[in-house]
């Protein structure tokens, strides 16, 4: 494949990532709300941010490096906003209480894990083609970690009956999203 094909290949990869993350956002936001899980809700917001990032990266494909960097930075600001929203939801549920449902948390997170591993494999070979693709890779790697955390939290809730693991993983995912946002905002 020659470099002239790179924008077409990047575009195809980003379209696939956008579709996967958009679908998983819809699944996780509904499941998170019904299962009363801050972990799933935080991960759904992360999926929404990722879908937006992939859309911005898609816009940047084949454009000047400065525009690619601006697209990456815009995605970083979006991630920052969603991280703050996830932190506020964790605080709300900590204050008002919740009863997360472990089977839903684990089941939906296993589906999300499969989706995110697929995204990570797709984006891996393109991650050095500009700031927009590096940002996309960072988001996909963070998603895999978040899914593993929600699965672990679901298992701990099932074992203990306490909602605390869900609150902790919700806060951890928000922190992971915040860390990813900061990394992306530092890309040059």
What does this structure look like?
The chain has 188 residues and is an all-alpha fold. It is 85% helix and 0% strand. It is built from 6 helices and no strands. It has helices at 6-34, 38-60, 65-96, 102-124, 131-160, 164-185. α1 runs antiparallel to α4 and α3 (65-96) runs parallel beside α5. The radius of gyration is 17 Å and the shape is elongated. The protein starts with 5 loop residues before the first helix and ends with a helix. The mean pLDDT is 87.
Biggest sheet record: none
- Total count of strands: 0
Residues in helices, as a percent range = over 70%
Q: Give the N-to-C terminal Cα separation.
A: 27 Å
Separate helix tally: 6
Mean pLDDT, all residues: 87
Question: SSE order in H/E notation?
Answer: HHHHHH
Structural class: mainly alpha
Oligomer: single chain
Query: Could you say which overall geometry the principal axes of the C-alpha atoms support?
Result: elongated
Q: Which spans have pLDDT < 50 for at least 5 consecutive residues?
A: none
